[in-house]
Amino acid sequence: MRLLSVNIGSARAVQVGPRTVSTGIYKTPVTHPVRVGKLGLETDTVSDQKHHGGPDQAVYVYSADDYAWWALQLGHPLEPGTFGENLTFSTFGPEPVRIGERFRVGTVLLEVTAPRIPCGVFAARMGDPGWVKKFKQAARPGFYARVLEEGVVRAGERLERIPTQADHPTLQDVFALWYESQPDPTQLRWVLQAPLAIRARREYEERLKAKS
């Protein structure tokens, strides 16, 4: 397992329906070392801070394995950073990634907090009005992570995957539950036991409250 690419973006305007919004989703690979702090990669831009970024979603990670799958579906390769991820891993490994798992990248320690939920800005980035539905159906969301230990990362470094509790939900479990119109309270309580990102936690807490 290796870190294939470190990707940085700056603010850019994009048209989402009738709105023009600023986004940092357009990211470009860099070869120099990049410092990673509690709020993400130094010099990277998070424009929509209401829905993105923050200490629980400081870093977004995607894998070359998933990009290879998308290349087959779309009929053309995708460069690292296309999905707006900060870090592109060669692979996540053979086992499903669980909330609370950790990855050592260079001198940085990341903890998995949530799957990526697609939005209109992502669809605009891909130039495909149907992209949100396609991404949902693919169920290959990548993950957001909090930074437990700050440090420096550089493309080419080895990765270490550190398992969490075996009963923690997988990214796919949390991703699927997001789209349930009538979620099972037992499932909601289960995912809330894991160290979720605060935005996801609030959403599932509200749904559980509505069930009681």
What does this structure look like?
This protein is globular. It has helices at 64-74, 120-126, 131-138, 171-178, 185-192, 198-211, and strands at 3-9, 12-16, 19-23, 27-30, 34-37, 40-41, 59-63, 87-89, 102-105, 108-115, 143-149, 151-153, 159-162. With 212 residues, the protein is of the alpha+beta class. The chain has an 8-stranded mixed sheet. 26% of the residues lie in helices and 29% in strands. It has 6 helices and 13 strands. The relative contact order is 0.20.
List key phrases describing it.
6 helices; alpha+beta; three-stranded antiparallel sheet; about 210 residues; about 25% helix; eight-stranded mixed sheet
Distance between the termini: 44 Å
Tally of helical runs: 6
By helix and strand content, what is the structural category?
Answer: alpha+beta
Q: Whole-number average pLDDT?
A: 94
What proportion of the residues is helical, as a percent range? 25-40%
Could you state the oligomeric state of the chains shown? Answer: single chain
Radius of gyration, taken over Cα atoms and rounded to an integer in Å: 17 Å
Biggest sheet character? 8 strands, mixed
Overall spatial form: globular
Poorly predicted ranges = none
Strand line-up across the major sheet: 4-1-8-7-11-10-9-13
